[in-house]
Predict the structure of N-acetyl-gamma-glutamyl-phosphate reductase.
Amino acid sequence: MIKVGIVGGTGYTGVELLRLLAVHPDVRLTAITSRKEDGLPVADMFPSLRGRVDLTFSAPDKVDLTRCDVVFFATPHGVAMSQAPELLAAGVKVIDLAADFRLKNQSSFEQWYKIPHTAPHLLEEAVYGLPELNREAVKSARLIANPGCYPTTVQLGFVPLLRAGVIDAGSLIADAKSGVSGAGRKAEIGTLFSESSDNFKAYGVSGHRHTPETVAQLQRFTDQKVGLVFTPHLVPMIRGMHSTLYARLTKEIDNAALQALFEDAYKDSDFVDVMPFGSHPETRSTRGSNMLRLALHRPEQDGAPGNMLVILVVQDNLVKGASGQAVQCMNLMFGLPETTGLQQIALLP
Amino acid sequence: MIKVGIVGGTGYTGVELLRLLAVHPDVRLTAITSRKEDGLPVADMFPSLRGRVDLTFSAPDKVDLTRCDVVFFATPHGVAMSQAPELLAAGVKVIDLAADFRLKNQSSFEQWYKIPHTAPHLLEEAVYGLPELNREAVKSARLIANPGCYPTTVQLGFVPLLRAGVIDAGSLIADAKSGVSGAGRKAEIGTLFSESSDNFKAYGVSGHRHTPETVAQLQRFTDQKVGLVFTPHLVPMIRGMHSTLYARLTKEIDNAALQALFEDAYKDSDFVDVMPFGSHPETRSTRGSNMLRLALHRPEQDGAPGNMLVILVVQDNLVKGASGQAVQCMNLMFGLPETTGLQQIALLP
Amino acid sequence: MIKVGIVGGTGYTGVELLRLLAVHPDVRLTAITSRKEDGLPVADMFPSLRGRVDLTFSAPDKVDLTRCDVVFFATPHGVAMSQAPELLAAGVKVIDLAADFRLKNQSSFEQWYKIPHTAPHLLEEAVYGLPELNREAVKSARLIANPGCYPTTVQLGFVPLLRAGVIDAGSLIADAKSGVSGAGRKAEIGTLFSESSDNFKAYGVSGHRHTPETVAQLQRFTDQKVGLVFTPHLVPMIRGMHSTLYARLTKEIDNAALQALFEDAYKDSDFVDVMPFGSHPETRSTRGSNMLRLALHRPEQDGAPGNMLVILVVQDNLVKGASGQAVQCMNLMFGLPETTGLQQIALLP
Amino acid sequence: MIKVGIVGGTGYTGVELLRLLAVHPDVRLTAITSRKEDGLPVADMFPSLRGRVDLTFSAPDKVDLTRCDVVFFATPHGVAMSQAPELLAAGVKVIDLAADFRLKNQSSFEQWYKIPHTAPHLLEEAVYGLPELNREAVKSARLIANPGCYPTTVQLGFVPLLRAGVIDAGSLIADAKSGVSGAGRKAEIGTLFSESSDNFKAYGVSGHRHTPETVAQLQRFTDQKVGLVFTPHLVPMIRGMHSTLYARLTKEIDNAALQALFEDAYKDSDFVDVMPFGSHPETRSTRGSNMLRLALHRPEQDGAPGNMLVILVVQDNLVKGASGQAVQCMNLMFGLPETTGLQQIALLP
């Protein structure tokens, strides 16, 4: 059994880790920390866990995380970097769900996240935990930077095209939409029910932290300089993420060949579902599951430019976009089948 | 007092016309038809109107619409074209909220709407009822083709740029999102609460009827051939529409000059609110009102192509996107101030 | 023109007052205060008001409210009691939307609201602003205690029965459901979208502040001792309140006579809609309007006790349940027709 | 492996059975029928099942259900009664999720469901499938009448009190609230998103089919004549049911003793969570899981009648209220641990 610790279990990625790990056959939940909730049974905060998780939150200084085999950081940016060095030194693997190790470039990190990086020596070693594009590296990693939710969809949608060299890498557009849980479990007016229900808006259009992460990762798959316009929006739903991607084709290629590019790219990936060409994936088809689904479209109607490709990508932002992906990485790091404990079927309706 | 008739008052654009016209100071609601609901008091179907509208639905053959000064068609496509000729001949003005007269090109209409056009001789005369781009023609019109909801946002967002010749007309993208009421009041599984709540999806990506309408109208404002990718999505909210528009700048122009283009274009338009550069308009800021709000963004972050412009446009799809716009046209046609009866402030929260 | 001041305009009852008063034909908005938002244009906080309200928030000490004819307090409990004496002394009428003057009994107030009452000498004079039960007193009032949202529905549902002496006053049950906006515009985890959407729960079942207010008011209409079980619930909708009231009939009385009791009681009340016996009022039929609708039911099916009466009552909690009712009181206090500026039709859908 | 057939798999209880049974370790999904969708892969209708369920709908006459060990009927009322006799004769167990066998009294069935009963000889044998109150009978049953969703909550909330004889059985009130999925996957205007979102209403107040079922079952646990007022409401959420139960205590009994009654009654029931006295269970704490949670309250505030007890009960209407309960019965019928395949933790948020 893998002994698992969770740092910062009071947010949505924390409770989602608990939901997944509590039924994972090879895991023993060992410790969960929260400075504010020291002594509170986890199930008192999240009644969905009553009778299923009997852990109690511990203050960070009251628990020895080096007894764990792996520690997940479901914390704000900046926490993992301060604790990872000691844990790694003690032989504990680390999976950070925040951004501390996502950007290889320290100054880019500090520019976007507005805090100094306290463990820059680990940036090179950290493995970007997107198994579909990085499986072998994940298997042997000690330290995982779990991808952002948006970047997961954008990368899995564009990379097969970039690799094949059939699109203009310099004019990519990602019009992305996220459920409100992506904003986290923080008391803020903007995400109150009365503010965000029956409403739709864009945010961060002039600049979002997920852009540099996405661009840096996409750049690995093409020699052309990547240019990306990324526009996030807030959807009045709890979970779910839908990215509508636009790319300009630069080569003659028919729809069957495009479809084949994707089917090939993900033929060994149990959690990527390449739907038939022209499908319209719905976010709810992934609600609560670790699946990401995508489909290609080529608008060729009267008036549409003939060389545009539209890729629709959906996932549950808290599962494949966060905690499920982290568990998927853990499985690979410990030599388990990638899908262990992640076979939940989406809740529909 | 303007005597008003409504054909087909049982859908959402019908009840919205009633909400607006019941408090319009210069209107007398005279007749409302419904084949199925003959004899039913309108307020029995829509209890929001109890005590405020005492009309009763009449079967079409039981009411003489030629007594009206103006007749609104809040009907499926195909109805207005069959009744408009007779009404016009009797001196009654006609405002069609469906698509019968939106496309000047008969064959394009028949291709997209799959029905033969029975009044093609009126296509030329019909005036496209988007007052902000067509005010003088609306004033003298006998027959108004009220624009589609999506096309209203796309045109008001792109036209100032096309007119100024600063963008590439051939590579426009409109990533549009609509509340569910846009699908109408029809018993269908896809728009059930349990199917569309807590869910997000694109639809009609390979081709949507609003594309030819939008392209034809945009083409009026540029000599370059218009190319548009239009991607509609369904948002789990009742009312509201958000179009995220992408255009490639082809001229050097700074943000202040871009902003000025829009402020200038709409300086006489009470229902278009050009928000400060970089704003994020919310759909709820227009809920129940006839306002359309828009804002410009220029993503210049690391990794973004420097020449892209993003225009965010919001409206209430049932008001400025349908019934409110129709009333706005009526006001102009009858020499009233454009804003008469349309001063409702959006419901927030 | 009535010069109106608003103290505390940054909450939902504040912005709702602005929505209503901005189009009120006899009102001039004169001042709005907010300690935190001093200097901010109101329309910057609430973009729904852009172009319609050009007031700017002022710190309380920067504005002389005694220039107003009437001041509304849309503040937390405790503010009105501290400022009302001075305003009243200066001849300004006061309408408090909070609870400061709702309970005649000072110690009951202090027990439930946990603050000392600083103006107990005004408790006797304050008029409970429920015009349907108290119209004449409202007309001549200087100081109005605007009722709580829940108590408005419970009183208007039970009073005709209590007055007639046909029910057991000692065993009343009010199972009440409110939209989330009733919790106000405060940054709290419990009312985040991700916490309260797609969810339903009761709260405060062991004791809610609206119970003593309701019981005290109901007691005015019966000699029997009133006993009330009040159970509030949170509904995942923004606006709307539905109270399901249960009473045990103690007299033989048929349905027509019961219906007549209500139609009679409210025959002069434009804002109470007594629907046909057996109707099911929907909250949305009042969304954005000042209407309260109610209907009677008598479950006589197999297995149901024959003497139970069910009364269904709906309103918009922010309009008839708060700001609309306050404006209704203002109209009466200034000799205007009760419905002035309150003729908005509910937004449906 | 238990060979399972499902009749009528295109509704919400059908797809929910598939979600549960597809990961049940002792089940092999063998056949699923649908007259309309013959030949359609199940996963084409429900993309949440892509890659997990590769069954195809078959017309009823194309599949031999007698090869199954058990057949679930997720059909409208009337179907199971027509097919059960033949299946039972062939040694196949039957679990009906509709109402065909819920009422022992044939004429009561025919009165409420408006169809003649074609298998009345099976009414006596059919076992009411509420394991918490009927576990032993379920174990040996051939034919299960799976309870209605509302009756499950009302019975589990009232029965411990009725058994103990501490409440007045003649004046029970159940104020119940259901998510919209309870209305099924039928194209109807009333449950469209635009009609039922941001709205709340009661329905069927004068009489609902679940009342006779509930009363008949409750009657088994008391000698006093049961009287029940049952008031269902529609909540704008997909899944979830909350019943607020009111009972009048007729004996002196303190809160601890009341709590003990419930803890005792359900001490062997893994799917009933008796929360601490005074808790407020949320529906989302059961979303997607087979748990039912309940809590007791005794409003003793000023003004409340001292002898009233309030019981709050929540469940997921599609799981414990339908398909999960059916699988729970199946487990018992086949000698499996009751919780097999039903350990899903609720999705929160």
